């Protein structure tokens, strides 16, 4: 679909985008963060909060695929030799549960391990972009900027987990690079409800200082004209 659309009820004011120049970005919907018995759950987090957004993310993906929009999936995943995981990252958190250690679903956050895969309900389709990222943000140490620019992408719709860590970092990095960003309110979640609320508020404050927010229903309504 190549035409200018508007979400009039987006926060903090109307958001305009052309699907031909917009990518739907799904951040880190990986088994280790989302599924019971994974890394996130073993750290004591309530993963049912994250699991609950899968239907909304899937519905948005279906609507986006139907208009032929670009889709980018990211995974927080490191090389098996950990050459892209600095001690400053690896040595944080629980000493018994570090990146690269054996976890409930294979080595934690290592590319190719079962836990690092995207949940089956949201599995990428052939032709969609899938990028492993060593940082919280999707631009650090990845070809994401080049991949988006070579497709003429200027606008990004963000979904995924967790709102205040990898989604927020990626959206801030994108905003600094000149992309017009929107976060999909019911397509993102945190283990900590108050962090999600605070993040949505921070991102859209001061006249969309980082970007806009809207619900899947509002975006789907725009897509349906
Ligand atoms: C993500 C994390 N994906 N919370 N990672 O947000 O460590």
Automatic annotation (TrEMBL):
It is an enzyme of class 3 (hydrolase). One of its GO terms (molecular function) is hydrolase activity. Gene3D superfamilies: Isochorismatase-like (3.40.50.850). Its EC number is 3.-.-.-. Keywords: Hydrolase. Pfam families: Isochorismatase. Residues 22-210 form the Isochorismatase-like domain. PANTHER family: FAMILY HYDROLASE, PUTATIVE (AFU_ORTHOLOGUE AFUA_2G08700)-RELATED (PTHR43540:SF9), PEROXYUREIDOACRYLATE/UREIDOACRYLATE AMIDOHYDROLASE-RELATED (PTHR43540). This is Isochorismatase family cysteine hydrolase. It comes from Roseateles paludis.
